[in-house]
Design a protein that fits this description.
The protein is mainly alpha-helical. The chain has one domain. 84% of the residues lie in helices and 0% in strands. Helix 1 (4-18) runs antiparallel to helix 2 (25-63). The protein is rod-shaped and about 60 Å long. Keywords: Coiled coil, Cytoplasm, Exonuclease, Hydrolase, Nuclease. InterPro entries: Exonuc_VII_S, Exonuc_VII_ssu_sf. It comes from Helicobacter anseris.
Length: 64
């Protein structure tokens, strides 16, 4: 599984390809779908990290 940072780099590469003038419709749609998939996975990773952070913060808060 790719890390969050790797997913962001992949998304950037897809955006660069989508902005190319010589891209045909079929490839554009395929890249768009892959970009959305990578973006959704990155968002899930970010949300999971945020929940973990909140749990840690609350645990430390309860100990004080």
């Amino acid at each position: 599984m790719k890390s969050f940072e790797e997913k962001i780099e992949c998304i950037k590469e897809i955006l660069t390809k989508l902005n190319a003038n010589d891209l045909n419709l079929k490839d554009g749609v395929s890249l768009y779908k892959e970009g959305l998939k990578q973006l959704n996975e990155a968002q899930e990773m970010l949300e999971k990290a945020q929940l973990e952070y909140e749990e840690i913060k609350n645990t430390l808060k309860d100990k004080n």
